[in-house]
UniProtKB/TrEMBL annotation:
It comes from Clupea harengus. It is found in: Golgi apparatus, trans-Golgi network; Recycling endosome. Residues 429-438 have a biased composition (Low complexity). HEAT repeats lie at residues 988-1026. Keywords: Coiled coil, Endosome, Golgi apparatus, Lipid transport, Repeat, Transport. One of its GO terms (biological process) is intracellular cholesterol transport. This is LisH domain and HEAT repeat-containing protein KIAA1468.
Length: 1200
């Protein structure tokens, strides 16, 4: 009962099992059975220790269906009535047997996602033979079962089926899809299934193709394993001293492990380099090494296990069984590791012996050189036998070699430790026995022929033992002390310096040999040593060499290393003074000014600025300035030019030659015109403040520097009447803006109250928002003045002076009021009001000027000058003359640059009143609205002014004049894009609805662009429906049927917002109404109106042609509308007719391709190629179109 309930699929298993096994035997493998082809270990402890019920476990890798039934039944019998769950493998077997392939595939996918891969399903779906051809019997049992010989792979079974000939073709043709043709989903050959089943089959075919590729790569892996001939391997095994060369597979595996180790331990740069050097290998996928190769543990684990992994198998066998390794049945298990261990040990012995041989060869060579040296010394001593005894006694312990010459160069300041050994003492004694002292008598240690300086140490007296050894024996005995004093390094080591100068000499000789052998990443550790030696070394040539080493210490020094080198250069300059800096450090900079590495040139540029305070003043203003100017003009690296500009700023603080002003001004303009934003920012942050400070000292800030920039701006405006160079205007104006803080500092420091500005008691406080945020500390007025306390005191006196005493005698401020402001206002009136960039730049300039000079100055000096020019008063509001200035950029710059400086209630009221007056005046005067639009655009960019602007527009909505109401309606179009949707719903839409019901038709028409912009930018459905209803009333109300201007405005709006509007609005509203308007235009009797409507329709359809249009809309509205439009253009504009014919042809081709059966309305490949060609030609022509009919005729003229 239990067994039957657990496995209901037993009925058909026996027949399939009998078909698979000719003898019909039901053989079950023990869990202890080894893999196929491997001999069984009789000593395995699992053979008898497992309970019998475990033999019936259903958790084996790939059990047969019979095995499942039997084991399940047995388990149920053992457990009695215990409730058991149905194994997933049983479900999989039944699905495959009943040919529920897609269900099994989905079941397999879900198991994979849950991390419970089922071998039965994996093997089934990885076998292409299950899907290309199938035998008459379901494959679930035949292919996945376990036979006596182990599990058969799916490929072997497929070959068996083909050999037996028991194959037939499925109800669909075999798929011939490849990876390149998988995009053609419509050609799926399973015609009896639904579209979702086709997708599933194609996804499976893609996965199958990928698995086929990986199987091919596995075959390549096996081929790579066999790349060495067998005879060659035998030679390597027979000769253990010859290392077998690395195979391709081993190399790829090691490369993968090394790359993995580098990434895990944060050696990212090394990993990147390693990956680049092995670009033929994919380090992200182990299967790239070999699909049939298991991934080994990482390098750390291999290293930890390398010492004990080989011994574990041998020890286990010996302890458990106690027999000899050769007597075991599975001898191959223990002998192979033992052979590998012996090979490794022999290799280590060979390497050790080779190392010993190399050491002995080196020692042999060293001893041979010593023998030659000793022989030459013996010859020298024999020549000097005739010298006086006293001299011989003094020289008894010394060697007469090249070290004696070095001692004379070192001024006799070295003690030679080689004389302590007594080795040479024995040689001297053997050469001249008469001069040999008694062994117990101490001999002088110092061997210098010159007299010792007064600060030198006394010779060291050795404590000799009371022994009687022959000198020859003593010499032979001491020869066993291995010392090398014959090389350069040995000579340096054998001498110890006993003074500061001798230490410097020794460092000067050794450092050039030390530096190349230090790691690049650690060479900055040598900087103190190099600098100290360069400072104190007595020889100029050696100092030059050391400084050359310093500047070439690191190939490409990073930021931190450059800072360290510069710190050392400054310390060197402080120590040695300007003369040596000029003679020793500057040449090193000059040599590297054109170095190929930008990091070196960057070091030079930074060094020029860092060393500026320590150079002679003539050099600062000549050589260094010329070097920096050359690098600024010629260097191609942005970072280098940025450092040059900063160093120029530092140089400007140390130049006191007035003749260099013009050169500095030219370099300022050159820096401002640099294409790199980094360089321009550095100019504003460092160079301009330093240059302005110098010109202030020269007295040229107000008289020369600022007027020069203003004259350049005026010249630029005169030249740019037909096309203003906005980049140059921005360059000059930004420089002028950076000079506002130093200009205000000049005004404060030259005020009548400056002499009274003495701090007594607690300093007054400065409001946080008193000044605009400076671009750098050098543009902070407190820094320019000296301190924040001093600035606070000056500001207090400044405000008091303006309120109570005026500007009498205040020349610096009078220059700002009487010369600078009028000239700036005149320039503002000459710029193009439609240039939003120019308006924004001047607005920012006036805003910073007014905020820097303060509210009192703005209210009493700036605003009156603007108001006098604008002349806004009640008397001339309705006049049509005298208001030409209102159409210029003066209006938006005054509104956004002056009236927005302070945000109190009176300031906001003044701004609202000004905008209302301008809107009223321009509307009643029928003047262009560009100045008002520019004001709204500039103010609308800041959300803080949205409420204020809506207040101004509401004033226009309720105005008595229809002209003012029209203007307000058009201004809503500009404001909608930046206002949040809450304000649009609460303030904008109600105002537009009010205007759309205005008695004047012109006012209603003026609301259409604003409604269109709402459809383009808003996402709330309620708002969109309200706008849609209003536009529908304009189109469908009979009172508007003959309103030509309304139809023109609607078509123009549809063409502008259609491509960006919500697709549903475009499909359900825009395209159908454009079709209706095109139909109505065909029967229009007024020729001029028909041409106007046709031109607007052409532009609207051109814009909408790039949008996605469904097949129904294309057939029912878009194509009919284009045909109606073409009928109009045939009479009035043949040039447009050519374009329309091309558009109609392309759309018809799309519809035909969709009719063929392509899903989602996408074109076929061939059609898309044709369509792309037509679209390219069409768009290239459309880019040249203008609204002028004459220009259109020229653009689309047929070739003759």
């Amino acid at each position: 009962m239990a067994a039957g309930s657990v496995n209901p699929f037993n009925l058909s298993d026996s027949e399939e099992e009998t078909e698979r096994r000719p003898d019909g035997a039901d053989i079950e493998r023990s869990p202890s059975d080894g893999p196929q082809g491997q001999s069984t270990n009789p000593f395995s402890p699992q053979a008898d220790s497992e309970p019998a019920v475990l033999l019936l476990s259903s958790t084996r890798t790939s059990p047969s269906v019979e095995g499942i039934s039997v084991s399940t039944a047995a388990a149920a019998a053992v457990g009695g009535n215990a409730e058991t769950r149905l194994p997933v493998d049983v479900i999989a077997a039944q699905l495959l047997r009943d040919q529920y392939i897609l269900t099994a595939l989905e079941f397999h996918t879900e198991l994979l996602e849950a991390g419970r891969e089922l071998p039965r399903l994996r093997d089934y779906f990885s076998n292409p033979g299950n899907f290309e051809r199938q035998s008459g019997t379901p494959p679930a049992c035949k292919e996945q079962g376990l036979g006596p010989g182990g599990a058969l792979t799916a490929q072997v079974q497929d070959r068996k089926r083909r050999k037996n000939g028991a194959v037939h073709v499925l109800d669909r043709a075999g798929s011939i899809s490849t990876l390149d043709s998988l995009d053609f989903a419509r050609y799926s050959d399973d015609g009896n299934r639904e579209s979702d089943e086709k997708v599933a089959v194609l996804e499976f075919e893609l996965r199958k193709a990928k698995e086929t590729i990986q199987a091919l790569r596995a075959n390549l892996t096996q081929a790579a394993e066999c790349d060495n001939p067998s005879q060659e391997r035998k030679n390597f095994k027979s000769s253990p001293e010859i290392q077998e060369p690395i195979r391709s597979l081993e190399k790829r595996a090691l490369n993968f492990l090394v790359n993995e180790y580098l990434l895990k331990n944060e050696y990212k740069l090394s990993a990147i380099t390693f990956s680049d050097e092995n670009d033929d290998q994919d380090f992200e996928l182990w299967d790239d090494v070999g699909l049939n190769i298991p991934k080994p543990p990482d390098l750390v684990q291999l290293y930890r296990n390398c010492g004990n992994s080989m011994l574990s198998l041998r020890e286990t066998v010996d302890v458990a069984v106690g027999v000899e390794a050769g007597e075991l049945a599975g001898d191959c298990i223990s002998q192979q590791p033992m052979q590998k261990t012996e090979t490794i040990q022999q290799t280590e012995v060979v390497e050790e012996l080779e190392y010993q041989i190399s050491l002995l060869n080196n020692e042999k060579q060293t001893l041979a050189e010593q023998i030659k040296k000793l022989q030459s010394e013996i010859q020298e001593l024999k020549k000097n036998v005739s010298a006086p005894l006293s001299v011989a006694m003094e020289m008894g312990q010394s060697r007469l070699d090249s070290a004696e010459d070095r001692a004379s160069l070192d001024n006799g300041q070295y003690l030679d430790i080689r004389r302590v050994t007594g080795q040479e003492e024995g040689k001297d004694t053997s050469a001249n026995p008469a001069s040999a002292p008694a062994p117990a008598t101490p001999t002088p240690h110092h061997s210098k022929l010159k007299s010792q300086p007064p600060y030198s140490k006394e010779p060291v007296q050795l404590d000799r033992p009371n022994r009687k050894l022959s000198p020859a024996f003593q010499q032979a005995l001491l020869s066993f002390c291995r010392m090398s004093a014959d090389s350069r390094l040995g000579s340096e080591v054998s001498r110890i310096a006993d003074s500061e100068e001798s230490v410097m000499l020794m460092l000067g000789r050794c450092l050039p040999h030390i530096v190349p052998n230090v790691l690049l990443a650690k060479r900055e550790e040598l900087i103190p040593l190099i600098l100290c030696t360069a400072c104190l070394h007595p020889e100029p040539k050696e100092r030059d060499q050391l400084l050359h080493i310093l500047f070439n210490l690191i190939k490409r020094p990073d930021d931190e290393q450059r800072q360290m080198i510069l710190t050392g250069c400054v310390a060197f300059a402080r120590h040695v003074g300007p003369t040596r800096v000029e003679a020793e450090l500057l040449p090193q900079c000059w040599e590297q000014i054109n170095h190929k590495y930008p990091e070196r040139r960057l070091l030079v540029a930074e060094a020029c600025g860092a060393l500026a305070p320590y150079l002679p003043k003539e050099i600062r203003s000549s050589l260094v300035l010329s070097m920096l100017q050359q690098m600024l003009a010629e260097d191609k690296a942005d970072l280098v030019r940025e450092a040059v500009v900063k160093s120029l700023g530092i140089i400007m603080a140390y130049i006191d030659d007035p003749d260099k002003y013009s050169q500095g001004f030219e370099m300022m303009l050159l820096s401002l015109g640099d294409p790199s934003e980094r360089v321009v920012n550095a100019t504003h942050q460092v160079f301009i403040p330093a240059f302005a400070a110098w010109t202030t000292e020269l007295g040229n800030l107000q008289s020369l520097l600022i007027p020069s920039l203003l004259s350049r701006i005026e010249k630029l405006l005169k030249q740019g009447e037909h096309g203003l160079d906005e980049h140059k205007l921005h360059m000059f104006l930004s420089a002028l803006q950076s000079m506002i803080p130093p200009l205000f500092a000049v005004v404060l420091q030259n005020a009548p109250f400056t002499s009274r500005a003495k701090l007594q008691g607690e300093a007054p406080t400065i409001e946080v928002t008193r000044f605009p945020r400076p671009a750098s500390p050098l543009q902070d007025v407190a820094t320019i003045v000296g301190s924040r306390e001093q600035l606070a005191l000056l500001l207090q006196l400044y405000d008091h002076q303006l309120v109570h005493e005026g500007t009498t005698g205040w020349d610096s401020l009078l220059w700002v009021v009487n010369q600078l402001l009028p000239q700036l206002i005149e320039i503002v009136g000459r710029i193009n009001v439609t240039s939003s960039t120019c308006v924004h730049e001047f607005s920012r300039f006036f805003w910073r000027l007014c905020r820097t000079f303060g509210k009192i100055f703005t209210n009493t000096k700036v605003k009156p000058q603007f108001q006098e020019i604008l002349r806004l008063s009640e008397e001339n509001v309705d006049a049509s003359d005298g208001n030409g200035i209102l159409t210029k950029a003066t209006v938006p710059i005054y509104a956004t640059g002056v009236l927005t400086c302070y945000n109190q209630d009176e300031d906001r009221k003044l701004l609202v009143g000004f905008l209302e007056d301008v809107m009223t005046t321009l509307s009643l005067s029928h003047a262009p609205l560009d100045s008002l639009k520019a004001s709204f655009v500039e103010l609308g960019a800041n959300p803080a002014y949205h409420e204020l602007l809506l207040t101004v527009l509401w004033y226009g909505v309720v105005h008595t004049s229809a002209l003012v109401r029209c203007t307000a309606a058009r201004m809503f179009e500009l404001l909608v894009k930046g206002v949040n949707e809450t304000l649009v719903a609460q303030r904008v839409v109600p105002a537009l609805i009010t205007l759309s019901s205005d008695p004047e038709i012109s006012v209603r028409i003026s609301t259409i662009p604003a409604f269109g912009t709402i459809m383009e930018t808003v996402t709330q459905k309620e708002l969109l429906e309200r706008v849609k209803m209003q536009l529908a009333s304009f189109l469908e109300d009979p009172q508007y049927q003959d309103q030509h201007s309304l139809h023109m405005e609607i078509i123009k709006t549809f063409g502008r917002v259609g491509p960006n509007a919500e697709p549903r609005f475009r499909d359900e509203f825009v395209l159908p109404h454009l079709h209706k308007l095109a139909l109505a235009n065909n029967v229009q009797t007024a020729e001029n109106k028909r041409i106007d409507i046709a031109t607007q329709l052409f532009e609207a359809y051109s814009a909408l042609s790039c949008c996605f249009i469904s097949e129904d809309l294309m057939v029912n509205h878009f194509l009919p509308g284009l045909r109606c439009l073409r009928a109009d253009m045939e009479h009035f504009s043949p040039e447009h007719e050519v374009i329309l014919s091309s558009m109609i042809k392309e759309c018809e081709l799309k519809v035909e391709n969709k009719g063929v059966g392509e899903a989602q309305g996408s074109m076929s490949i061939a059609a898309s190629l044709v369509g792309e060609d037509a679209k390219t030609k069409f768009l290239s022509k459309m880019g040249q179109l203008t609204t002028s009919g004459a220009m259109l005729a020229n653009v689309f003229q047929r070739k003759k």
